[in-house]
């Protein structure tokens, strides 16, 4: 059984202009120890999905679908069950680590408080655990950094401390929302290495939300590509980079600069994500798709296997997880062929 199973998740916001469907029938699973990347442009529904998992949406409403964590129906949890789930089983790390800490308390005290919120331990034990957690996330001289305030940490170090705080409840799933955005490239690489270590050594499952395909390539096992609230491609990371099977993914990959690139200009996807209050009919990507045909404007494609394998798979399974894309090309409904000119990473 998958650790996390999201099925047909649909989230709506109610605006002055009408109903905005931010997440539309999204399904995916995460296995224990697996790192799943959720990738897409701003407004694709990535953060809304993460918040919905823990029922942290302030204005939005989950109007359809199910979320099961380790067999437990999250949408049916009582407030007490939700409190146990948050932090103890599932923890979140956001892009802005400053906001995770109160500036008037030391970083160490706040992590120790996190430990005490989840476990009945003495202050002294909590302090020791907090120092161990700072060491676990590679903060140098953790005992002396314990008494430093958030403003005394660099951006990268504070992000590590935010991860330490998230680990205080010993969760099974860590949701990281754009954890490396705004951090310089070398520190970014160290953070990604840390996340990969947490997954492989501690068996932590990670949902990594990002707009950066380089981050995905670095540490994800599988990827869900979101476009305008729906999954348009789901694949093991290598298949996604070597055989992108949706024009949107292909466009994203083609627009990444590479070493030795001799292109004068990087290709870019025309247009932008559609207005989610007034979404295009048929395939939600058709206004931007260079391969669109008449059927694309009227019928919405569903996720179909692109390699004949229908298993959802996961790490440790005998079969490779299925590579699926939501494009009429995979139901034989397009007249032309999709031939992408994509140079892989
Ligand atoms: Fe493009 Fe049509 Fe495929 Fe949508 S269904 S991605 S418009 S070819």
UniProtKB/TrEMBL annotation:
Topology relative to the membrane, per the entry? Peripheral membrane protein
> Where does the protein principally reside?
membrane
Compartments, record wording: Cell membrane
Tell me which UniProt keywords the record has, alphabetically. Answer: ATP-binding, Cell inner membrane, Cell membrane, Membrane, Nucleotide-binding, Translocase, Transport
Query: Which Gene3D superfamilies does UniProt cross-reference here?
Result: P-loop containing nucleotide triphosphate hydrolases (3.40.50.300)
- Does the record's keyword annotation contain Nuclease? no
Annotated GO molecular function terms are: ATP binding; ATP hydrolysis activity
State any GO BP term from the record: peptide transport
Outline the segment boundaries, as ranges, of region: Disordered.
Answer: 300-325
> Which residue ranges does the record assign to the ABC transporter domain?
4-253
Ribonucleoprotein is among the record's keywords: no
Q: Which InterPro entries match?
A: AAA+_ATPase, ABC_Ni/Peptide_Import, ABC_transporter-like_ATP-bd, ABC_transporter-like_CS, Oligopep_ABC_C, P-loop_NTPase
- Tell me the SUPFAM superfamilies matching this sequence: P-loop containing nucleoside triphosphate hydrolases (SSF52540)
GO CC annotations?
plasma membrane
User: What is the recorded name of this protein?
Assistant: ABC transporter ATP-binding protein
């Amino acid at each position: 059984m998958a650790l996390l199973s999201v099925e047909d998740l649909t989230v709506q916001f109610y605006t002055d202009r009408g109903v905005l469907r931010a997440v539309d029938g999204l399904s995916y699973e995460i296995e224990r120890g697996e790192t799943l990347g959720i990738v897409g442009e701003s407004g694709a529904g990535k953060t809304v999905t993460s918040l919905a998992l823990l029922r942290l949406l302030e204005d939005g409403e989950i109007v359809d679908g199910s979320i099961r964590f380790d067999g437990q129906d999250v949408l049916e949890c009582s407030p007490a069950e939700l409190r146990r789930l948050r932090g103890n089983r599932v923890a979140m790390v956001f892009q802005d680590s400053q906001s995770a800490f109160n500036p008037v308390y030391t970083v160490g005290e706040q992590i120790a408080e996190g430990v005490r919120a989840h476990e009945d331990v003495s202050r002294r034990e909590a302090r020791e655990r907090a120092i161990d957690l700072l060491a676990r996330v590679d903060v140098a001289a953790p005992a002396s950094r314990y008494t430093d305030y958030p403003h005394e940490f660099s951006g990268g170090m504070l992000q590590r401390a935010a991860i330490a705080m998230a680990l205080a409840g010993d969760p099974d799933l860590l949701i990281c929302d754009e954890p490396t955005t705004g951090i310089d490239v070398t520190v970014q690489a160290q953070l990604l290495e840390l996340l990969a270590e947490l997954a492989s050594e501690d068996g932590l499952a990670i949902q990594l939300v990002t707009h950066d395909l380089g981050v995905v390539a670095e540490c994800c096992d599988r990827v869900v590509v979101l476009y305008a609230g729906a999954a348009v491609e789901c694949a093991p990371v290598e298949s996604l980079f070597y055989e992108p099977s949706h024009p949107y993914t292909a466009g994203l990959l083609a627009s990444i600069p590479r070493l030795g690139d001799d292109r004068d200009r990087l290709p870019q996807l025309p247009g932008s994500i559609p207005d989610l209050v007034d979404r295009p009919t048929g395939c939600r990507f058709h206004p931007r798709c260079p391969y669109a045909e008449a059927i694309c404007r009227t019928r919405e494609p569903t996720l179909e296997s692109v390699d004949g394998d229908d298993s959802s798979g996961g790490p440790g399974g005998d079969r490779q997880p299925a590579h699926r894309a939501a494009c009429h090309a995979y139901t034989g409904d397009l007249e032309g062929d999709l031939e992408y000119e994509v140079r892989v990473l």
